[in-house]
Amino acid sequence: MPSMVMKAGEVICIASGIYEGYDRTGPFIVAQDFDLEAFIDKAKATVEEPWEISGLMYEIPRMLLGQGLITKMPCRSIYLGAIGDFELGEEKEDF
């Protein structure tokens, strides 16, 4: 597995899930060095049921923001379309 030590100044996006449950947030700027794997291990210790892991994955970016480990980087997210048809639009994030 690649190193999951995030370095201050790096630009990152965070993704999880598959198919209709796929979620990607960012970009973010890493505000200070931290070990993402250690952060997640600590967060996973609070989960009691296996089915809660998906919800935790969705909350990780908010948790990192809340602890000041990352900051939101302004960015427009443009949607091109799907299934052979262009449907240009702009996606909004709920951050």
Report on this model:
This protein is α+β, with helices and mostly antiparallel strands and 95 residues long. The chain has one domain (5-91). It has 2 helices and 7 strands, in the order E-E-E-E-H-H-E-E-E. It has helices spanning 36-44, 53-66, and strands at 5-6, 11-16, 23-30, 34-35, 70-72, 77-82, 85-91. A 3-stranded antiparallel beta sheet has the order 2-3-5, covered by helices on one side. It has a two-stranded antiparallel sheet with strand order 1-4. Strand 2 and strand 3 (23-30) form a beta hairpin. The longest helix has 14 residues, at 53-66. It is globular, with a radius of gyration of 15 Å. The mean pLDDT is 91.
Order of helices and strands: EEEEHHEEE
Largest sheet: 3 strands, antiparallel
Radius of gyration: 15 Å
Give the percentage of residues in beta strands.
35-45%
Helical content, roughly?
10-25%
| Whole-number count of domains | 1
Q: What is the structural class? A: alpha+beta
Q: What general form does the structure show? A: globular
Average of per-residue pLDDT values: 91
Give unreliable regions as ranges: none
Spatial order of the strands in the main sheet?
Answer: 2-3-5
Number of helices in the DSSP assignment:
2
- Distance between termini? 29 Å
- Counted beta strands: 7
